Amino acid sequence: MQKTDLKRDQLPDSPGVYFFLGPRKQILYIGKATSLKNRILSYFVSDLISKRSPLIEKMVREAKTIDYTVTDSVLEALILETNLIRSHKPIYNTRSKDDKSYNHLIITKEEYPRVLVVREKDITEKFSVEEIMYDFGPFSNGKLFKDALKIIRKLFKFYDSDKPITSAKSKLAKGIIDFNRQICLYPDDQDKKSYQRTIRHIQLFFEGKKNKIITELTKEMNKLAKEYRFEEADLVKKRIFALQHIQDVALIKDDLRIYRDNKTMRIESYDIAHLGGQNMVGVMVVMEGGELMKSEYRKFKINSVDKSNDTKALCEVLERRLLHKEWPRPQIIVVDGSTAQKNIAEKILKKFEISIPVVAVVKDHRHKPVKLLASQTIKDQHKNNILLANAESHRFAINYHRQKQNKTFLG
Fold first, then answer.
1. Which helix H or strand E contains 220, and what residues bound it?
2. Strands (DSSP E) along 120-264, which ranges?
3. pLDDT tens for each residue of 92-137
4. Span 261-290, pLDDT tens digits
5. Where are the beta strands (DSSP E) in 80-141?
6. What is the pTM of this model?
């Protein structure tokens, strides 16, 4: 399969799972992505063998089409990928993996079921078939799986003790259970019916049936409200909101770390231009795969500022840009300025609940770059592209500002 076979504009910049399909529509390979667009395009680079493996390069050559499924979050993409690999056993997934060393999520068949992480090679040694209620996995990336469980812990409280809760007889064992309840790792009480429902919700979540959980919780919330149990209804409402707005920043960051040298990296650079606060404008310049994407540049006429205030103007530009959810999301945002510009950009991203690294390009009195405010990793990997995008955004902003000035003069 060639890059020209892809309908690039139709690839979504969203989390999800993608499928490389063979000539008879058979699934050759399944993967998950923070951005389906960026991940799929990453397979069509000249040095794929060195970046991935000869096996993956062979798979891409054999593939005829690519399909995908969009998910609401990276966490759900991770779970869906695992379930689909287990169901379909694609040839290029199973060839490149040794499942025996990978983690599984086991839910025990007990009075108070425990949710445990167990390596596949240890499952049969530690449990009989009768002792396991549900088995999800294998999860190939250990670190990613642990980060995912931390997120799931915030959605559902469950027991993960070494021994069944009912067998905890010693003061030490009971103390550990009480401590974990105090720090919100374990359920607040031992109401069996309530806990069994939580276990069922964990099961549904790992089966990819989040919407079914939300439907059940919504019915429960409405019932509580009708009974004037508003505090309880509000707690259920918060659980629904948490499920609908899963905060999986840790998974996104890990994904960025693994693929930060990806040639499809999208960088957006912003700059503000004006003359003493007059005809103030802002611009967005886009670089993707190391190339300037002029068709994706954007101009912003500043409406909220009538005097010199670069940070407030930048605030307006970023807010207006982030309202365009149909625009592809960048992996790095570059701003012209110093700590003030970097802080305001990060504040706006936090407001929109988006996690994207922000880089500030500090200039001297001649407007020459002297410093990058960024992590060392980003500077090592992307310094040249950041500086090029910044220089281009400055040029674009100045030209746009001059156009505005000329129209004012002629008017």
1. helix 210-226
2. 132-139
3. 987 655 555 789 999 999 999 999 999 988 998 899 999 999 999 8
4. 445 678 999 999 988 767 899 999 999 877
5. 103-108, 115-119, 132-139
6. 0.62
Q: How far apart are CA 294 and CA 286, in angstroms?
A: 7
For residue 286, the tally of other CB atoms under 10 A from its CB is 22
What 3-state class would DSSP assign to 271? strand
Pairing of strands 358-363, 332-336: parallel
Amino acid at residue number 227: E
Based on the fold, state whether residues 7 and 114 are members of the same structural domain. no
| Token representation of residue 34 | 């923070």
Q: Are 83 and 137 in contact (CB under 8 A)?
A: no
Identify the DSSP state of 328.
P
As a 3-state breakdown, the chain gives helix, strand, coil percent values, each rounded to 5, of: 50, 20, 30
| Inter-residue contact 126 to 110 (CB < 8 Å) | no
Question: Would you give the end-to-end CA distance of the chain in angstroms?
Answer: 55
Are the C-beta atoms of residues 343 and 358 closer than 8 Å to each other? no
Confirm whether 259 is domain-assigned.
no
- Does residue 203 lie within any of the structural domains? yes
User: Which residues span the domain enclosing 61?
Assistant: 3-95
Q: Are residues 339 and 246 in the same domain?
A: no
Q: Has residue 260 been placed in a domain? A: no
- Identify whether residues 149 and 220 lie together within a single domain: yes
In a shared domain, residues 225 and 308: no
91 and 104 fall within a common domain = no
Ramachandran region, residue 25 (left: φ > 0; alpha: ψ -120 to 50; beta: rest) = left
Contact 207, 83 (CB under 8 A): yes
The answer to whether residues 99 and 93 touch, using CB atoms and an 8 Å cutoff, is: no
Distance CA 312, CA 395 (A): 21
> Mind listing the pLDDT tens digit for each residue in 14-64?
899 999 999 999 999 999 998 898 889 888 877 777 667 788 999 999 999
**Dist. CA 411–CA 265, nearest whole Å:** 42
Number of domains in the chain: 3
Q: For Cα atoms 370, 377, 37, give the angle at the middle one, nearest 5 degrees.
A: 110
